[in-house]
């Protein structure tokens, strides 16, 4: 029996659980720092806090942080990895990942997503429902490619960046570390570290913090 522990009993955590079960895990266990005030996330019970999970890492075949916030997900991922956890890579059976792409530990690829040849995905990334990442892209750590977002070929995405729902990024563009691309944005020029952009074409809104 293969056992997966998920840290983060939220909406994204449920998606990770659903994806893991579809991908062949037999049972999932949730941990969340709101425990014991929060004791379940339908239809699963919560087994303890992140501190409890750190003490039990050897009990699971895989562990994944199911938290959407990039900064929090990365910090929890590093803490678990340094504690010796077997950080999982989970790919939904209805996603397509080229055998010539590489996925880092702690990454989840949700149903309908596509990752094409030559792409390298860092650790603790989310490639969400129906997102497409074309050939030879470089995604650093703790990136979230939101549902329906599309990266053309040779796009580089810095650590902690967030590509919003339905956004499109032109080929060869770099998205900086900690940048946010708004939902539906069309990115045709590089985005500097820590910037938020939105619109068509995407334009700067404000400064944010990079990881």
Pattern of helices and strands: EHEEEHEHEEEEEEEEEEEEEEEEEEE
CATH top level of the largest domain? Answer: Mainly Beta
CATH superfamily annotation of the largest domain: Hexapeptide repeat proteins
Please outline the major beta sheet.
8 strands, mixed
Q: What is the CATH T-level topology of the largest domain?
A: UDP N-Acetylglucosamine Acyltransferase, domain 1
Number of helices: 3
Strand content: 25-35%
Q: What is the domain total for the residues?
A: 2
Poorly predicted runs of 5 or more residues? none
* Coarse morphology: globular
Descriptive account of the structure:
The protein is α/β, with parallel strands linked by helices and 211 residues long. The protein folds into two domains: 3-88, Rossmann fold, CATH 3.40.50.20; 91-207, Hexapeptide repeat proteins (UDP N-Acetylglucosamine Acyltransferase, domain 1, 3 Solenoid). It is built from three helices and 24 strands. The chain has helices at 11-22, 50-55, 70-82; strands spanning 3-7, 27-31, 40-41, 44-45, 62-65, 90-91, 96-97, 102-103, 108-109, 114-115, 120-121, 126-127, 132-133, 138-139, 144-145, 150-151, 156-157, 162-163, 168-169, 174-175, 180-181, 186-187, 195-198, 203-207. An eight-stranded mixed beta sheet has the order 6-9-12-15-18-21-23-24, with helices on one face. Strands 7-10-13-16-19-22 form a six-stranded parallel beta sheet, with no helix packed on it. A five-stranded parallel beta sheet has the order 8-11-14-17-20, with no helix packed on it. The longest helix is centred in the middle third of the chain and has 13 residues, at 70-82. The radius of gyration is 17 Å and the shape is globular. The mean pLDDT is 96.
């Amino acid at each position: 029996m293969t056992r997966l522990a998920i840290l983060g009993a939220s909406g994204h955590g449920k998606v990770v659980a659903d994806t893991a079960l579809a991908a062949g895990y037999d049972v999932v266990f949730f941990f969340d720092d709101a425990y014991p005030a929060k004791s379940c996330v339908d239809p699963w019970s919560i087994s303890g806090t992140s501190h409890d999970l750190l003490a039990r890492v050897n009990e699971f075949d895989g562990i994944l942080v199911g938290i959407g916030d990039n900064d929090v997900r990365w910090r929890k991922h590093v803490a678990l990895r340094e504690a010796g956890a077997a950080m999982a890579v989970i790919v939904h059976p209805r996603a397509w990942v080229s055998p010539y792409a590489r996925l880092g530990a702690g990454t989840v690829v949700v149903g309908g997503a596509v990752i094409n040849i030559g792409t390298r995905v860092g650790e603790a990334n989310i490639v969400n429902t129906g997102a497409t990442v074309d050939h030879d892209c470089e995604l650093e750590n703790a990136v979230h490619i939101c549902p329906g977002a599309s990266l053309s070929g040779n796009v580089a995405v810095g650590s902690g960046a967030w590509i919003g729902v339905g956004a499109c990024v032109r080929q060869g563009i770099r998205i900086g570390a900690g940048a946010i691309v708004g939902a539906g944005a069309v990115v045709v020029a590089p985005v500097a570290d820590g910037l938020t952009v939105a619109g068509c074409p995407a334009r700067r809104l404000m400064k944010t913090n990079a990881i």
